[in-house]
Specification:
The structure is a homodimer. Chain A has 13 helices and 13 strands. Chain A is of the alpha/beta class. A seven-stranded mixed beta sheet of chain A has the order 7-6-8-9-10-12-13, sandwiched between helices. Chain A has a six-stranded parallel beta sheet with strand order 2-1-3-4-5-11, with helices on one face. In chain A, helix 7 links the parallel strand 3 and strand 4. Chain A is elongated, with a radius of gyration of 27 Å. The termini of chain A are far apart. In chain A, about 50% of the residues are buried. Chains A and B meet through helix 4, helix 5, strand 2, helix 6 and helix 11 of A and helix 4, helix 5, strand 2, helix 6 and helix 11 of B. The structure holds a DNA duplex (30 and 30 nucleotides).
DNA sequence: CAGACTCCCGGAAACGTTTACAGCAAGCAG
DNA sequence: CTGCTTGCTGTAAACGTTTCCGGGAGTCTG
């Protein structure tokens, strides 16, 4: 009747009490054996047997409440359909797994609200740390990042003085590499298909494009600039709009998804690539290599950024008192068929996709 | 001195005790106010103020231990780089989000060990439920699924009698649709680039291909069948091997990544698509529409399967006593330029990518 | 053989919440 | 004025673990 129920969890699952009772030992001993620390041979045998008989599985939540750790790391990215995040995720995953933790991914659809909600909820102790890669940053958002209850590392540009661990690249300079390359190949009417200007990367790339052209003394024809989303369909549509009103001899795209959209638009309109229009993407994802012709692309070191972010996070988890750190990964250009010099004889166009890549 | 430390968490963060002490009320009252249930106006005011002053944020783990729920759902897929899982994830996410929960994704790299480890760890109460889409299934694995501590729904083929909620498609019949379509267009030397035969989908598609050819009275030339991984590079390599030794007039690929690899191999070898070789992929992902020409593809209803799986899971969480259920989604074929009838005059080839799709 | 040292064990106190229960004051009907 | 209801409040018991601490039994040393 009034006897305390200590045997089983509310849903009927066995707890450490069940095991202890069945083995005829205290819960302390049971817990010790189950954690592999201490216990006489006989006790170990009894507890193991009891645990197996009742099918005991420890409650990770209770354990975490006690140990203050969950062994989980979260990664929040805008668009899980973008291969650049896949590469970043793979790099992060391998570091995280090596530390004996598990990685969980959450897609925010680029909405600041989602990301803040995630911070305000998930981060409240469900995970030991987070890596977030925001494409839009508001003050509110930044505040949530700064006083997050768990360690956070940001991948991407952030206000210079934000006291948050941060791994960034210089996408502005990255666009410059693409423009330099195209100018060197003799192109002058260089177009640009960008993502939204109210995003951090969108703004940086726009600035980079304008600065690069100016650096070469080329006056920018605004009809050669078009903006869409950072996605395939939007990129294709934006490229179509651009082609309908202007005649570029080269196109820089703000990421590979856009570049693929532009490639599709170009080919559908009967333009040859790179013969009529040279094409350069950004992010240097696997997608760029999947295309025919393979796309030149500016690598922003996403795998490297991911790896470093994961390492920063692990260090911060180990020592929360560390001062905020900032790391930077330099962009570089991978030249492939889509922007190969248009003057070469046809035979020089690589017949097989295994073209060794030139890295500038 | 000996006074009990009830004020702050071990890491110095405020707890409900901190708030209660500061507001001069009991922790019960503080908790009630913070949860918006009960409390006099004056109490509410004091507690809210105190919480704001100390920057209180509730510890989700402790709450979950008490409530036995975390509000988190996990999705485990083999390869997060495969767009088919992206589509599935989007569908699942929308259902899950509508129920006020959050979705976390975990990539298993197709390793049974990883997936079992996830089940044995994550599922131990860190999440309220899981959706897993295994491509390899072992007995061990199956056992872990069956007696998982949290509700699990499997997307994909599973032993007929496994007592696990399950949403499947008929990929065997799906391959049949592709073959029927190609045969109807006059093709006879139909090749097949498949994934590993030791995977569930690989085996099913192999069987489907052989059955479909037999159904049309076509004798299978084994040189027209090649196997690789379910990925782009492997698909491209496999297609190259196949083309080096045989001359198909059509190619069926076991998923879209492989199909893209095959397309690349075909174009690189100087074949026209669909002029010389017609091409049909599977999964009907966005990737198929990103190619030029756009790829015909057999839809296996991944978004629909994801949606249904999420609904099944939510129902099971609500009522764990439900009997195991099984749902099936029928495949269908989306015909696009890559397998358009080769006899049509050139003008009929769609100039723009917005071709209305024919669905059979 | 006494004392020190080891090892193992069980009781109980955490971890930070929510919530059942009981007490208490105020309001109201009779 | 009494008794019942209503609305808040605080105490304490959960949730399922891990771990500190003290006690008891055994072993070794001097």
């Amino acid at each position: 009747m009034g006897r305390k129920r200590l045997q089983e969890a509310v849903d009927g699952r066995p707890t450490v009490h069940t095991v202890a009772a069945r083995a005829g030992v205290s819960i302390a001993s049971a817990s010790r054996v189950l954690n592999g620390v201490g216990g006489s041979p006989e006790t170990i045998r009894k507890v193991r047997a009891a645990a197996a008989e009742v099918g005991y599985v420890p409650n990770a939540i209770a354990r975490s409440l006690q140990s203050q750790r969950t062994g989980l790391i979260a990664l929040a990215v805008a668009d899980i359909g973008n291969p650049v995040y896949v590469e970043m995720m793979r790099a992060i995953e391998s570091v995280v797994a090596a530390s004996g933790r598990q990685l969980l991914v959450h897609a925010t659809a680029g909405q600041v609200a989602n990301e803040t909600a995630l911070l305000r909820r998930l981060a409240h102790r469900y995970v030991d740390g987070m890596i977030v890669s925001p494409i839009r940053v508001t003050d509110d958002h930044l505040a949530a990042l700064v006083d997050s209850p768990v360690p956070v590392v940001v991948v991407g540009q952030l206000g210079a003085d934000a006291p948050v661990d941060n791994v960034r690249t210089d996408s502005r300079a990255g666009v410059g590499l693409a423009v330099d390359h195209l100018v060197a190949a003799g192109h002058r009417r260089i177009g640009f298909v960008n993502g939204p200007l109210d995003t951090v990367p969108g703004a940086a790339r726009d600035a980079g494009f304008r600065a690069a052209l100016a650096g070469h003394g080329i006056e920018l024809d605004e009809r050669l600039v078009e903006v869409g989303d950072f996605q395939y369909t939007a990129g294709r549509d934006a490229a179509e709009r651009l082609l309908a009103r202007a005649r570029p001899d080269a196109l820089v795209c703000a990421n590979d998804l856009i570049a693929v959209g532009a490639l599709h638009a170009l080919l559908a309109a009967g333009h040859r690539v790179p013969g009529d229009v040279a094409l350069v993407g950004m992010d240097d994802t696997e997608l760029a290599r999947m295309m025919f012709p393979q796309l030149s692309s500016v690598s922003l070191g996403s795998a490297e950024r991911g790896r470093r972010a994961a390492e920063l996070l692990l260090q911060r988890i180990a020592d929360p008192a560390l001062p905020p750190r900032r790391e930077q990964v330099a962009p570089h250009l991978a030249v492939r068929a889509s922007s190969a010099p248009p003057l070469l004889p046809k035979a020089a166009m690589p017949p097989a996709p295994r073209t060794p890549e030139v890295t500038a």
